[in-house]
Specification:
Helix content is about 30%, strand content about 25%. The chain is an alpha/beta fold. It has two domains: about 10-125 and about 250-265, Rossmann fold (3-Layer(aba) Sandwich); about 130-240, Dihydrodipicolinate Reductase, domain 2. Helix 1 packs across helix 10 (about 250-265) and helix 3 (about 80-90) runs parallel beside helix 5 (about 110-115).
Length: about 270
């Protein structure tokens, strides 16, 4: 008995920055069951220089990716999030946002996805242990706290710092720059702590998840520690991610994205 052939899942990448470019390279190199169909970039010539293989891949506006892609991966500045999300959701596609903090600010998109038959699937990104958090959330989680420590360059330019005239230049010792909820942190650091938003969605929500952010000049890696107290387990986890060429983003983020895409088509999926 022959096994019916399934066409590959068509992937569209909105953005070819530090994350999108690496995802594109890996998809072009070959991931069974997936094909890179189109990309959206601001500067097509620059993109082709960075990735010559784009010659045979469509380049189109971000809001047009969903026209012929089954999955739209968002790797864009936060201000561009909503239009791309709506275009994918309204066509019933799988929308994979990396700007997870923006999902908290556009929560109506979740209900919109329900009515349109779309799915919103944020990848784990630079975090660790979301499977354990999701499992614990099936019971009762009493508290979750995340402590993020980054080199100062990984936090520079955040709205929260600008609004309070906090400068990190010349910092010689660790400085706690934020202590509050994940929702507040995602709003004040939209390009820096998407991990906190993802953690809150896996667990007890953005208003109960607590977040500390530290600028630490002694660090060369983005460090995230998660502390969870639940009725089924108490656990803590730490990850030290190597920053990419964009200091706000870790090198593991594009690999997490590829792993999430692979899980959509793989016959074997390990983990929750």
């Amino acid at each position: 008995m022959s096994v019916p052939h399934k066409p590959p899942l068509r992937v569209g990448l909105a953005g070819l920055g530090a994350v999108g470019l690496e995802v594109a390279r890996r998809l072009i190199a070959g991931v069974p069951g997936l094909t890179l169909t189109a990309v959206a970039v601001r500067d097509a010539d620059k993109a082709r220089r960075a990735l010559p293989q784009l010659g045979v891949i469509a380049i189109k506006p971000a809001i047009a990716l969903a026209d012929d892609c089954d999955v739209v991966v968002e790797c864009l500045p936060p201000a561009l999030f909503r239009d791309v999300a709506i275009s994918a959701i309204d066509k019933g596609r799988i929308f994979m946002p990396l700007s997870v903090a923006q999902l908290l600010e556009n929560w109506d998109l979740v209900e919109r996805a329900k009515t349109k038959g779309a799915r919103i699937l944020p990848p784990t990104g630079a975090l660790i242990g979301l499977d354990a958090v999701r499992a614990a959330a099936e019971g009762t989680i009493h508290s979750i706290r995340m402590i993020t420590r980054k080199p100062p360059a990984g936090l520079e330019g955040a709205p929260y710092l600008r609004e309070r005239n906090i400068t990190l230049a010349g910092l010689t010792q660790p400085l706690k720059v934020f202590d509050g909820t994940a929702r507040e942190g995602a709003r004040g650091f939209p390009a820096n702590v998407n991990v906190a938003a993802a953690l809150s969605l896996a667990g007890i929500g953005p208003d109960r998840t607590q977040l500390e952010i530290w600028a630490d000049p002694a660090l060369t890696r983005n460090t995230h520690r998660i502390e969870v107290d639940a009725d089924t387990a108490r656990f803590s986890m730490t990850i030290e991610g190597v920053p990419s060429e964009n200091p706000r983003t870790g090198r593991i983020v594009p690999l997490s994205t590829v792993a999430a895409l692979r899980a959509l088509v793989s016959e074997l999926k390990v983990g929750t």
